[in-house]
Design a protein that fits this description.
Layout (H helix, E strand, L loop, with lengths): L5 H4 L3 H9 L11 H17 L3 H4 L27 H24 L6 E7 L1 H7 L5 E2 L3 E3 L2 E9 L2 H5 L11 H5 L6 E5 L9 E7 L2 E6 L11 E2 L13 E10 L22 H10 L5
Antiparallel strand pairs: 1-9, 2-4, 3-4, 4-5, 5-8, 6-7, 6-9
């Protein structure tokens, strides 16, 4: 009897094939011994041709330590302590990870917090602007982008200029300004840092600290305590230094700290995804 004739001779073709494929030939009572013999022969031949079970089954590690490199420490379950030798080994690896984090932190370039604004011939520029404030080019400091410095000449400079009858109405406006002029910073948008400290340097004079709030796009006005014209050098240029210090600038969108050392027991998927969203490198 051929194997191709068995499905036609035996009812329930699908059930027979299912049980025969599973090697359960002995549990098919409706199959006679003559019909069962060819199938048993085929199954025995297939079993002899298969490799051993240890070779065809994938190796499944029984412990988490087998899935990780030898240098990666595996901590105990919560509430248990490591043996003395294991604790020393884990502590050594953690120390190496912390040292790597310190090296990476030292390799990261620090955010610039100071900037110098050089104004060539400020007296002529104020005259060309009819005494209006001078505005610097955009610059970035401490994570804040597109900042600008505003410099006003002051009423002392305004009163020293030749009077023009047509501009007599502006005298009342200038009398309300600062005597020696003022400096101010303008942000591209409202800062959200908790604390911002601003300093201005003109010559050997350091002015500040000034603050900025999230309600305004400008900082506090810094009134000059000396005549800025006395700090103009021989090349008719005035250097104004700007320093900004902030706790958490809003433009810093990625994590700039040292790499975080994550232990095996805390390396969950959600935690790692959150670190990746922050851009924090994981060692």
């Amino acid at each position: 009897m051929n194997l191709t004739d068995v499905p036609e001779a035996v009812g329930g073709q699908r059930r027979v094939r299912k049980e025969l494929d599973a090697g359960d030939v002995q549990r098919a009572p409706w199959i006679t011994d003559e019909e069962r013999a060819p199938f048993i022969h085929v199954l025995e031949h297939r079993m002899r041709s298969l490799p051993p079970a240890a070779d065809r089954l994938p190796a499944i590690p029984l412990a988490l330590s087998e899935c990780l490199p030898p240098s990666f420490p595996v901590g105990p379950p919560p509430g248990l302590e490591l043996p003395v030798g294991e604790a020393d080994r884990v502590g050594t690896v953690c120390g190496v990870g912390a040292a790597k984090g310190m090296e990476a932190e030292a390799a990261i370039e620090p955010t610039s917090t100071s900037w110098e604004w050089t104004i060539l011939n400020p007296n002529a520029k104020f005259k060309a602007n009819c005494g209006c404030p001078l505005v610097s080019n955009p610059f970035s400091l401490a994570g804040f982008n597109d900042m600008r410095a505003i410099f006003t000449p002051g009423t002392l400079w305004q009163n020293a200029q030749p009077k023009d009858p047509k501009k007599h109405r502006k005298d009342k406006v200038w009398q309300k300004g600062c005597r020696y002029g003022s400096l101010q910073l303008k942000f591209s948008r409202r800062p959200s840092a908790e604390q911002i400290s601003i300093y201005f340097n003109i010559g050997s004079c350091r002015l500040g600290p000034l603050s900025a709030s999230a309600e305004h796009c400008t900082s506090q006005v810094c009134e000059l305590s000396m005549d800025w014209r006395s700090h103009v050098d021989k090349g008719s240029s005035l250097a104004i230094g700007v320093e900004v210090r902030a706790d958490c600038p809003y433009d810093v969108q990625e994590y700039r700290g040292p790499p975080l050392f994550v232990m095996a027991e805390s390396s969950h998927r959600m935690f790692r995804q959150a670190l990746r969203l922050l851009g924090a490198p994981i060692v």
